[in-house]
Specification:
about 120 residues, mainly alpha, 2 domains, 4 helices
Length: about 120
């Protein structure tokens, strides 16, 4: 015949199961505690995002600045191109460069001319 568990055996099994559940849920609680320490609050995230937004430039501002730099760069290149043109012309006047070389140099990019 099957032996029925005694009340004591049932009590011990429930007690053991309860202890194991306490350990399990204690470990989960500890894990959540560690996670909470690493997490930021919604307000902290909003503050950090606001700081980031103040340091960020808009697309329009960036495009405007890029166009400004492009304009300054073109101006500098044009000045250097003019200097080169003057130099080549003077070297041609002193017969250092032949006319074909002068024409070739002046026809080069970025700002070709027919001086």
């Amino acid at each position: 015949m099957d032996k029925q568990p005694t009340n004591q055996e049932i009590f011990e099994l429930v007690k053991k199961s309860s202890f194991e559940n306490q350990e399990f849920f204690g470990a989960i609680k500890e894990s959540f505690s560690e996670l909470e320490q690493k997490m930021v609050t919604k307000d902290e995230l909003k503050n950090e995002f606001a700081k980031f937004e103040t340091r960020m430039v808009s697309k329009e501002f960036f495009v405007d600045k890029l166009n400004e730099f492009r304009g300054e760069f073109v101006t500098l290149i044009r000045k250097e191109d003019n200097k080169l043109g003057v130099l080549v012309t003077k070297l041609g006047a002193r017969k250092v460069l032949p006319l074909t070389d002068i024409q070739d140099v002046l026809a080069m990019e970025p700002f070709s001319s027919s001086r």
